[in-house]
Amino acid sequence: MTAFKSRIQTASDGFKQNRKDMLALVEQLNGLNERTRILSGKRKARFQARGQLTPRERLSRLLDPGMPFLAVGNLSGYLSDGRPEEQSLPGSTVICGIGFIQGVRCMVVVDDSGIMAGAMTGSTGYKIIRSEQIALEQKLPYVHLVESAGGDLVNYTVEDFSRGGALFAGQAKLSKAGIPVISILHGSSTAGGAYMPGMSDYVVAVKGNGKAFLAGPPLLKAATGEIATEDELGGAEMHASVSGLAEYLAENDGEAIIMAREVVERLGWNTRCPRFKLDSTPPRLDPDEIAGIVPVDYRKPYDVREVIARIVDGSDFADFKPRYGVSTVCVQADVHGHRCGMIANNGPIDPAGATKATQFMQLMDQADTPVIFLQNTTGYMVGTEYERAGMIKHGSKMIQAVTNIEVPRITFQIGASYGAGNYGMCGRAFDPDFLYSWPNASTGVMGGEQAATVMSIVAEGAAAAAGRDVDRSAMEQQEKHLTHLFNSQSSGFYTSGHDMDDGMIDPRDTRHTLGFLLATVWEARHRETRRNSFGIARM
Known about the structure:
Elements lengths: L12 H29 L2 H6 L5 H8 L7 E2 L22 E8 L2 E8 L10 H17 L3 E7 L9 H6 L1 H12 L4 E10 L4 H4 L3 E5 L4 E3 L3 H8 L5 H5 L1 H8 L4 E3 L2 H13 L24 H4 L11 H4 L9 E3 L7 E8 L2 E8 L5 H16 L4 E7 L6 H5 L2 H14 L4 E10 L2 H4 L9 E4 L4 E3 L3 H19 L5 H17 L3 H6 L12 H17 L13
């Protein structure tokens, strides 16, 4: 195969405008990523007064220096936590991501106790449950740095309480699957939060600050009349010497992290997976140019091969059936040495495109090759011509394939994700191994203008059938309402904040993110674990 020949003119006005628009969205993303970091950092003096490290200092010391860390749910909770936009908390009260500890790829969760004392909101619960799911599927040791006030009682809902049990069920499933769960008890862990260390396989508790109790002193007094100090009731020293909740007792946060790193090292985790060293050639075309290639308006066309050529090794790929179903692009390539198949969009999916994608997925499944979906489509084609050509039938075949192939599936939402195109291109409901979005992503059953027009046509038809005039004023109000309703929920920032992806990334980081994810799914499918008949129980 020969390397892709780009037709992009980086000096053109269109490229410059695309780049300006995309970088404005990236700047917005970076600002949101910093929002909770800044807010949590304002409490640094409180941590220092208690002789503690801040949550992000703990994370920094836990992870291997210079190694990548991929955040999970970096915008989770944004625009969904009931706060005004300027006060909404991207990422909620917990930091989640995949990083390396003593050379071992791990799922890491850090309670951000600098925000609401680490209390668990609905988004916090979702992020922890999703991190447990990823750890289970990708066979990643699960390391949790615990300091939480428990559930957010100010915004309590019974449904959040009921669903919260899934956090502990997730830990039990990990332990049964032979995937170790390691907790550091840095501070108070109350009520349901106490089960986070309680359900762990290994617990390191910090003397003086680490505490775990089902009912803290105020609730204990209210419920039973008993009066006890925090240390008597659930202090780290008591748990290390009396209750047996803690295996290791540390003098401070720093020592606790060293102990946890040693626990990970002694797992011998990497001896259970073959090591690989893959040859990788950087793209000939600069990934930074992606920002100028892709318009933020999904209605403006571009050739998605220009994006692919800036992601894959050597800008080299094999184009599968390029003259058939031309709006659906299927290629084979390598990314950081990992072979993969990619399905991308140059427009809506027609019957030929659906058939082509279906065959391609089956071939990748046969060859045990991961499939990458680059979503930018307004959906499947509609109209008499396409209905007669079997659009429903062929689209259904594509959805069958995307659901049932057994190789890893990784999705990036890089533009439009509308209608059943979201489904056929492996949207959230189809449980891809990972799903990340770009800041220009747009998702919905259809655009707001289209929804408004559809309902106006329906209203006109109903009025004609009833023999009455259409209320034009009411129809205009309905059109405005529907346009706002649909468009306000389509933004990538909105959907990411509502946990419809695993996070939002800078488009220029796609190659490295994808390489990291391909290595993660490769390890998972080549790693042996010693499955237990039961999770590890504390004796």
